[in-house]
Design brief:
Length: 142
């Protein structure tokens, strides 16, 4: 796995009333959240890639459906420089994907009902990123 990337399993509790999913308990992995947002694509053919944030750590959680993430390490001094990792996050198997600064990230909805929760440690005003085309790396987005 790319250095600094984490995939945290999230506990889900069920009873006769329904489910409770606890995304963060003591927020050990979550620094000061400056921005929380929800993203939904109009259809499965939309690819949102690739973005590299210069100082922002991002936290992704799939609220509904399934999403495929592709990450590429662009930190020249990293032991995992240029490594590419793929993750499929689903609402059925809850997890939080943590993406550190300077790691390209992109995603595609795998289901029509995919809804993604994003948490960032910068505001939109502080946010600085670089965007490149979704076909910049060899990725099978299916």
């Amino acid at each position: 796995m790319i250095e600094g990337v984490k995939l945290l399993e999230v506990p889900r509790f069920s009873d006769e009333r329904g489910t409770l999913t606890q995304i963060f308990e003591e927020a050990k992995e979550l620094p000061k959240a400056r921005r929380i947002y929800i993203v939904k694509n109009w259809n499965q053919s939309t690819v949102r890639a690739f973005h590299k944030n210069f100082s922002e750590t991002k936290y992704f959680y799939v609220i509904s459906g399934a999403v495929k993430f592709v990450l590429v390490d662009d930190r020249r001094k990293s032991p995992t420089y240029q490594q590419k990792d793929t993750f499929v996050l689903t609402s059925e198997k809850p997890a939080v994907l943590i993406v550190p600064p300077k790691v390209y990230n992109g995603w595609k909805a795998l289901t029509d009902d995919a809804v993604l929760l994003g948490i960032a440690n910068t505001t939109m005003k502080e946010h600085r990123d670089e965007r490149i085309a979704h076909d910049s790396f060899e990725v099978n987005w299916r």
